[in-house]
Specification:
alpha+beta, 3 helices, 151 residues
């Protein structure tokens, strides 16, 4: 069995292992333009495909935040019956109103870029909105609502 590293590097970005349930191995890099994490299930050392996908999402040439924002604008504009007129206008103006991106990469070739801030009043996404990808292709949108009421 291959030992699970506590740290590894992609270019000049260092990933440090973080606490996770025993069946998972997780690493996070905070010293990037976009905080990025890798999740391996079952717990194992990162495989070549996962390392290549991390290199892709970390590359400035990939424009992952721009691609995610463009996909999100198109998706919300198409399904925009829930949007207020003010939010529809925000989507039509540049730049897109999304902020505080973070990335999670999974070992199956999928990943998500989540914007913690949507900038839209009519979207109830207290924990943000995410764009799912397979390789470099956007494949869906998830709204992350509050998990519980803090009453």
């Amino acid at each position: 069995m291959q030992e699970i590293p506590q740290q590894f590097e992609i270019g000049d970005v260092s990933f440090e292992r973080v606490d996770a349930p025993d069946e998972l191995a997780c690493w996070a890099a905070q010293d990037t333009m976009i905080p990025t994490s890798l999740v391996m299930s079952p717990a194992m050392a990162p495989d070549q495909r996962s390392l290549e996908l991390l290199a892709y999402v970390l590359s400035p040439d990939s424009r992952v935040a721009d691609v995610a924002a463009e996909y999100l604008v198109a998706h919300l504009s198409e399904t925009g019956d829930q949007l207020s007129e003010a939010d529809s206008e925000r989507l039509r103006s540049a730049p897109a109103p999304f902020d505080q991106p973070e990335i999670v990469v999974w070992d199956d070739g999928t990943w998500m870029l989540r914007f913690a801030e949507t900038g839209l009043d009519s979207i109830d996404a207290g924990l943000g909105v995410g764009v799912s990808f397979f390789a470099d292709v956007p494949s869906g949108v998830d709204l992350f609502e509050e998990a519980f009421d803090a009453e």
